[in-house]
Design goal:
10 strands, 3-stranded mixed beta sheet, alpha/beta, about 375 residues, globular, about 50% helix, Spore Coat Polysaccharide Biosynthesis Protein SpsA, Chain A
Length: about 375
């Protein structure tokens, strides 16, 4: 009976948390750019590239082809010690809108362990415009990406905006699980920002005022972490007395990136992301991740125990059904908004796969394994 009560309690807390997110997601106003909108905001796109010869040409040519006045934006690419053909590919494009900097040419700007942060700082310091957009060299962008960001900036007068990310890959279950996780993550990101519960950003799609960035001294104080340029920056922005933060809820603001192709690559990336949470001032994010991990652990335990002892299967049924229903609502809501294909019957199998992923992540963290980079 006590196990049933514990399961019911965990299910109730999980339900409340996810309904909270779903409510604030629904209250986050979507951004729709009017056809008559004429952009007037000068933009500086900053991109740090490390061995991106396979993706950077497509990425840059896609940005150059944006439906945005060419006279109003520049692209600043900072090469981070690439050993492949990244630099030569950039030079081959030969566009006056692209400014290339090699990080090794600026040793005074390099912070050991924090090469990406160093690259972003170098790019921002050399940007000719106040509104900075940061993205990654392995991404592709909606043709109206810049226009949507500029419209949202002019409409909201925000100082920091983070936008949506789309994970795309093949049709196997590992890819689908990452896509499902990412859709839920967009809901959490938007809801957290709107409610003020917590701030999450993604370095592949964030934009901000250079003026405010300089006032908060960029990434100063966070150089000991290899990643976290997005999370540390939005956290510092939130503490600025006049800064306004928003989530760009729009399909046309979408940035697409590929899923990880193996379990090992996925776990390594997530471990790197998890490590940066230690440096965040708001412990609530780590607390929520910990609760989600505990929920999955309880769900697996409640499935295994009836197989080895005379314990009811009811706790598992309570935990699983609660999680499946509310997660399904969140994922389908996000799928519909971003014009993605519904997951339909796959969600049950993906729930079990995701549980395995969460527990493996937790074990890796407990055993002290480090991420990539």
């Amino acid at each position: 009976m006590s196990f049933i009560i514990i399961a019911a309690g965990l299910a109730f807390l999980y339900l409340l948390l996810q309904l909270f997110y779903l409510y604030h997601w629904s209250k986050t106003d979507p951004v729709i750019v009017p056809k008559e909108f004429i952009p007037g905001t000068p933009l500086s796109i900053v991109m740090v590239a490390h061995n991106e010869e396979k993706t950077i040409e497509k990425c840059l040519r896609g940005i150059l082809a944006q439906r945005y006045p060419a006279s109003l934006f520049e692209i600043i690419v900072v090469d981070d010690r690439s050993t492949d053909a990244t630099v030569s590919i950039i030079q081959k494009i030969n566009s006056s809108q692209i400014k290339l900097f090699e990080l090794t040419d600026y040793p005074g700007s390099i912070h050991q362990k924090a090469f990406k942060k160093s690259g972003i700082e170098l790019g921002v310091n050399n940007a000719g415009n106040d509104w900075i957009i940061v993205t990654d060299a392995d991404c592709t962008h909606h043709p109206d990406w810049l226009k949507t960001i500029a419209y949202a900036k002019e409409l909201s007068k925000a100082d920091f905006i983070t936008g949506p990310i789309e994970k795309k890959g093949a049709e196997n279950f590992l890819d689908k699980m990452q896509e499902m996780e990412n859709l839920a993550f967009m809901v959490l990101t938007a809801a957290g920002i709107r409610s003020g519960l917590h701030d999450i950003a993604n370095g592949a799609n964030m934009s901000f005022s250079k003026k405010i960035y300089l006032e908060i001294k960029g990434f100063e104080g966070n150089y000991e972490y290899a990643s976290g340029d997005d999370m540390f920056l939005i956290e510092k922005m939130r503490k600025h007395e006049n800064a306004r933060i928003g989530f760009l809820k729009s399909p046309t603001a979408m940035v697409r990136t590929s899923t990880k192709k193996s379990w090992n690559a996925l776990i390594q990336q997530r471990l790197r992301w998890a490590r940066k949470n230690r440096g965040l001032k708001n412990p609530l994010i780590s607390t929520i991740w910990g609760f989600v991990g505990l929920y999955h652990l309880a769900m697996i335990a409640s499935l295994i125990l009836p197989l080895v002892s005379a314990v009811s299967l009811l706790p598992f049924i309570i935990l699983f059904i609660t999680k499946w229903i509310i997660d399904f609502m969140i994922i389908q809501n996000a799928s519909f908004f971003f014009h993605r294909r519904p997951f339909q019957g796959n969600t049950i199998l993906l729930q079990f796969l995701y549980t395995f992923y969460v527990l493996r992540m937790g074990w890796s963290l407990l055993t002290g394994k480090k991420g990539d980079w």
